[in-house]
Amino acid sequence: MRGKFIVLEGIDGAGKSTHVEFIAQSIRESHGVQVLVTREPGGTPLAEKIRGLVLHEPMDVETEVLLVTAARRDHVARVIRPALEAGQWVVCDRFVDSTRAYQGGGGGVSLGWIDELSESATSGLSPDRVYLFDAPAALAAQRRGGRGQAEDRFEAQDLAYFERVRDVYLNQQRLFSEASFLVIDSSMSVSRIQNLLLIDIATL
Ligand code: TYD
Fold first, then answer.
1. How far is residue 166's CA from residue 60's CA, in Å, rounded to a whole number?
2. In the predicted model, is pLDDT for residue 174 greater than 80?
């Protein structure tokens, strides 16, 4: 049986990375399946190289779209699809919705163009479940500050950029069926979020 494709989304600092391993482990326990954890941009040697470029080299936003989409193509073709077809579940930190939100919302690129490119690059692969970790841009920035890590090109953006990213995340949710998209309020405690995730994962 084909595995399920689970994606985590949210603005930088909204808490995705706190929950990724918890989600993978809960799926293993709840469904007795093998789980592959991966991320975008990245997940293959080529795509990890592209990640380094996109996060650190100056470029215009259309180039960002083309590079993250090329990385995604490689990742889907060589890692995600083969895993799903072998019956593994895949938990991916970011996918197409990140491009819509960051390059579309933050950068102002046409969502129609992003959707068209994404559709052909992924051959129409879409997640069975998207967990959107939602937080106001100011709260997320505060949390990022607390991590004390070096900033990349995106983390260096201002609050207005992250509010536009967040808007696209929240608005596109209405375009998806309620069944595939779950918005999680990241201002809740970690244990409360984990309880919600456990309940949801059991239904997958
Ligand atoms: P992220 O996955 O949050 O990693 P970390 O927690 O290590 O910083 O960072 C990846 C960055 O890439 C994030 O700022 C969003 C950006 N990004 C895009 O702009 N477009 C995309 O399509 C993807 C996948 C990521």
1. 21
2. no
